[in-house]
Amino acid sequence: MRNAPADAAHYVFTRDGTPPKDLLQIGLAQLEPYGVVVENKIVTDAAAIGHSFVLTLGNGRRVESRRVVLAIGVEDILPDVEGMRELWGGGVFHCPYCHGWEVRNRPLAAYGKGDLGLALVTLLLGWTRDVVLFTDGPAGLSDSQRAQLARHGVPVREERIERLVGDGRHLREVILSGGETIARGGMLIRPPQRLRSDLAHRLGCPLREDGRVEADEFGKTPIAGVFVAGDAGPGMQSVGAAAASGATAAAFLNHGLLEEEFA
Ligand SMILES: Cc1cc2nc3c(=O)[nH]c(=O)nc-3n(C[C@H](O)[C@H](O)[C@H](O)COP(=O)(O)OP(=O)(O)OC[C@H]3O[C@@H](n4cnc5c(N)ncnc54)[C@H](O)[C@@H]3O)c2cc1C
Q: What span, in angstroms and rounded, lies between the C-alpha atoms of 156 and 135?
């Protein structure tokens, strides 16, 4: 699961504060009565053959199916800042709705350049009045953006970040090149992403500008019989949204199969 580095998942209906691995176990256990076969293997290839698909598993076994749901998720590409990976999912977080409450009213950091940096600051100002924007190099901000930040009392630090210092999973300090240390209790960042596997590419699914798989509101991709659910598709990236898009894709997939059989 993408949130595996976090101790707990928040912003999840009825499961607030549940460790991600427990969420997975609950989900798997609830499949048991339905006789669902779970193959804990990497799918290394997928190809359309006539009106069906052949998936190749890591152990070489081939599985045939009439439909495919790509629930492959995305990978976050973290910047090369010392200490960031260790704090990812704790003191460094990507979603203010999942992990903002835990750092409310603390001095916080936004990490990003240009419009993205400004957007992250805006989100953090909902949790604290003490925000510093770190751009880790030239800020790429217009004069009016800088004036806006100044109006909200948000300093912009364009120096390279040398490292982040944590206290266990909590961020404590941002150390800038040159040695200046700025105390911060959390950092919001939105790193670029890529799909976790090339299966969408192998199946010929068009991607959107943001690299995620193009699909309609039911998860249907432009490739007949291929659906997408969760972070890999359009829409909000969260546990609840992934579950909702998975349930939607499953229902429409099943409906399509029944229609096909009926016809
Ligand atoms: C640090 C962090 C903390 C987060 N905290 C929260 C939170 O508190 N609340 C919240 O709502 N959201 C949170 N999120 C977002 C949440 O984790 C995702 O939105 C959610 O996990 C998306 O689910 P998914 O099933 O689409 O993708 P994923 O959880 O990424 O799962 C995709 C799965 O597909 C598997 N896979 C990929 N390719 C293949 C292949 N070829 N063969 C077989 N398997 C494959 C992967 O191994 C993975 O297990 C957090 C994200 C991060 C990064």
A: 7
